[in-house]
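Quick one: structure tokens for this chain, please?
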Amino acid sequence: MYSLLLTIIYVAFVSLGLPDSLVGAGWPVMHDDLGVPVAFAGIITMLIAGGTIVSSLLSERLTRRLGAGLVTAISVGMTAAALVGFSLSGSFWMLCLWAIPYGLGAGAVDAALNNYVALHYAARHMNWLHSFWGVGASISPFIMSYAITSGLGWSGAYRTVGIIQLVLTIALFVSLPLWGKVHAKPGVVAADEEANDDGGHRGHVPLATALRIPGVVMILAAFFAYCALETTSMLWAATYLVTDRGVDAATAAAFASLYILGITAGRFAAGFFADRVGDRALIRGGFAVVGLGAVMIMLPLPTDVIALAGLVVAGLGSAPIYPAIIHSTPVNFGRRSSQAIIGIQMAAAYCGATFMPPVFGVLSAWAGMWTFPFFVAVSVVLGLLMSERLNRLVDQRATVSAPV
């Protein structure tokens, strides 16, 4: 049962990544077909992001009431319906309409699955699962490319991914009896906490209550900082290399893609030693390596080789941070509060990923693109400082509560 459910969750993470690159890959064709400006892509992505933030904040209440398995199945079903809706849309306003259930479904399943894995599986699986998300996100542009070149059009790509999501939805509903039979891993359940059959806990933890838990604001700031540096690097690294370092566009694009591949490969590699070194070391080491990469990028050397290598180093350093922050949540804050806090973390992640790349765009227009590696470095310092402050707080709490 343990392995069967884990396999289904792995497939779910691949499927979660599939839709995330479709808008970007298909928009050059989509905006022409729909008769809207190129900039309208931002409206779609903002609607999706808004839905994910809302559903992430509501995920704790939903998961306690319905269970992680049912929330995951329903949420994937919502994204499947939305993707099929995208494929049938003949106007921009219809895309906007279907973006709402897509965002709501994506946020709820992300929070529910991450918390379930954090509670029930080892750190290596959290890293590998997020690596599989990267596989899904890397595959979808090829699906879009094939659909366009084969005459199916961009709607064919959405229909294909929608059908894949629909098949996964059926598998998730069939697997529902398994979700309550996998026991939580040791070390995250307090003696006085009583679990229900699906790994959750009785008693809703309101948003305001969760935010008042000591250390929560620190980890939210660290998570926000990480997602800000990751998505800003994904969007602006190639532009920085071309405009500020004089790298040719093809080379810059290749190394920008290597940053993303570095995250995916780094998470896969981190899974082999994550259980031995622990979440704290992964977070601390990840931020340190990203910082090293930022320094390599900003060095005013006559050659661009160090800067290009620095971008790859930053990608590898970024790899374990997100999974480790999620996986450490039940240990840092207790199992009863973990679903609520992971939901807020997902919301903080989406806020950082959605708003900080445009903020850097405004900053670079005012001060210059040379600020890119310094923006990354400041994000690293903030993330590392907040995570280390949380570590000290958790250690102090453990010392006070330890029996004498």
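The CA atoms of residues 120 and 183 lie 6 Å apart.
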